Amino acid sequence: MGGDGGVSVLRSPATIRERCADVLAAAEAGRSANLAVDRSKLDACAAIVADVTRRRYPSLAVPYHSRWRHFEAGGVDRAAELDRALVGRGATDAALARIDLAIVSVLLDAGAGARWSYVERETGGRYARSEGLGVASYRAFVSGAFSSTPGDPCRVDARALGAIDGAALARIFQATDANPLVGLDGRASLLRRLAAEVAGRPSAPFLPLLERRGDVAAAEILATLLERTSAIWPNGLVLGGVALGDAWPHPRAGGSGVSAGYVPFHKLSQWLAYSLFEPFERAGHRVVDRDALTALPEYRNGGLLLDTGVLALRDPADATRRHAVGSELVVEWRALTVALVDELAAHVRSRLGRPELPLACVLEGGTWAAGRETAAKLRGGEPPLAIESDGTVF
What's the N-to-C CA distance of the chain in angstroms? Predict the structure, then answer.
């Protein structure tokens, strides 16, 4: 466990997989009152994912599941637009700007709700859900909404973030009573918490990785994020006085010492780590050991498993109830999602004939898109479980 009271254990992606495997083993043994597992449905689920992947990426040149995909909404290459705005900056300075953008945009990326949308003035396009949040946060970034430095809009700094409240985000996201966005105040609070943690620019902790030569491991990117951002999550685990963020108790989670019985997920942090692969690669680094990170335990990946029968509610009435993020059912659903998407990915790779396809690309191709399409067909886009969310986890 080490001498840090279990902090390093619960921040490790290896622990995420181990604890999720514990929960899966218990569910398979019938020691769960919440969910049943049917592995015989995995291959049919993989067939759906493979078909969606081929349709979306016919050449199978699948990019990472990353915030940068949402900046491409409507076929607009906003990354190229940002490149033009960053002309004249060195590779490291440009990378810091891209990291700033990815961090603030991902922190604003929890579920938007089904009734909200954003109209992009520059293109006239209307976008909803994650694409809308991505486009809106991109436009806010390039307009200087997150910068306190005159003449340098393409940056994020603590002074600007510390002044953001729900009303400011409502203006950025065009949120009104008629166009409601879930969790505005929670999102604003998250940005202010980030400001208190980073003091300067959110990208600054990544400067040592950017300045060194050689490869950068995916787990290093995640570790840097967790060291500096775990304390910003308002509802996460606090262990021994240390805020650990998106980690929750579950009676079937294993482990030893003070970290026993907890399942870490770090969903938004891992989503952010995936979203930083491209800024590092654009700066000339090779990101290695990418599959050390896990599947993202959220309602698209998890919903796909429920909607295809890989998972089934033991009490069907749970589909009609609202559930707290930290409830045993939701924690279990998320844990089973992490464990089973690893298995599902192997089936998908086999069907695509791409054994080397990184998990980040399986998600993009992929499980997330298939989960969204399945939800659209069955429930108009709503997830199979209703979660009480403040916009900081889901």
Answer: 29
Does 1 reside within a domain? Answer: no
Query: What pairs with residue 262 in β-bridges?
Result: 249
**Concatenated DSSP letters for 62-114?**
---SSHHHHTTGGG--HHHHHHHHTTTS-HHHHHHHHHHHHHHHHHT-S---S
Most confident range, picked from 104-113, 198-207, 301-310, 378-387: 301-310
Contacts of 344 (CB under 8 A, 6+ apart): 42, 45, 46, 49, 305, 310, 362, 367
Q: Determine, yes or no, domain membership for 181.
A: yes
Instruction: Look at residue 2 in the predicted model and tell me its pLDDT.
Output: 45
94, part of any domain: yes
Q: In the numeric block, which tokens belong to residue 134?
A: 């991505």
In sequence order, the β-bridge partners of residue 237 are 245
pLDDT band at 363 (very low <50, low <70, confident <90, very high): very high
Mean pLDDT of 328-345: 98
In a domain, 288, yes or no: yes
pLDDT value for 5: 66
- On the question of pLDDT at 99 being above 80, the answer is yes
**Given a cut of 50, is residue 1 above it in pLDDT?**
no
- The three-class DSSP label of residue 242 is strand
Supply the range of the domain harboring residue 65.
7-388
Q: What is the largest CA-CA distance in the chain?
A: 61
More confident residue, 193 or 357: 357
Question: Tokens 């800024």, residue?
Answer: 279
Nearest-angstrom CA–CA distance, 74 and 129: 13
**In 10 A of CB 353, how many CB atoms?**
9
User: In the predicted model, is pLDDT for residue 218 greater than 70?
Assistant: yes
Rounded to 5 degrees, what angle do the CA atoms 277, 274, 294 make? 135
> What's the CA gap between 221 and 279, in Å, rounded?
11
Q: Which is nearest to 116 in space by CA: 104, 130, 96?
A: 130
Name the token pair of 8.
């390093």
Question: Which tokens go with 51?
Answer: 């078909």
Token pair listed for 25: 């083993």
- Looking at residue 199, its pLDDT comes to 82
In the chain, how many domains are there?
A: 1
